[in-house]
Design brief:
Elements: H1 3-11, H2 37-50, H3 54-63, H4 70-95, H5 99-121
Length: 124
């Protein structure tokens, strides 16, 4: 080891890694919970669909934080993509003076936005 590296390592207290959490934010408390086998399976299934650990899923449920499933995220992304294409169609149609196409595209855009809003309201 070079002399410079030795001096740097001697003066360093932390050896790297993730910074420590504030003690008030560390998860040191436990809470026991009894469930029926059916409830247990339901919670397992829901946490898997949300892509979360059971502990994180239950924590979010208990604290009223949002939970969205992988399917919802994928569906929302796809609907957003469709909305972008519809918006491009509407813009071109209106610039080329095709009022029927522009009107239908605008209606479709509103329907896509309504679907995205509905997805956002699920599981809340």
């Amino acid at each position: 080891m070079s002399e410079q590296n030795e001096q740097q390592s001697e003066g360093r207290q932390n050896k790297g890694g993730r910074p420590r959490k504030d003690p008030r934010n560390r998860r040191t408390k436990r809470y026991g919970l009894r469930l029926s086998p059916k409830e247990y399976e339901e919670i397992q299934d829901r946490s898997e669909r949300a892509g979360l650990s059971v502990a994180e899923y239950l924590r979010r449920c208990a604290l009223g934080k949002p939970i969205s499933t992988k399917v919802e995220k994928k569906t929302t992304e796809e609907l957003n993509r469709i909305g972008v294409h519809l918006n491009q169609i509407a813009h071109r149609a209106s610039s080329e003076d095709l009022p029927d196409v522009a009107s239908e595209a605008e209606t479709a855009i509103q329907e896509v936005r309504a679907l995205i809003d509905q997805i956002g309201q699920m599981d809340r």
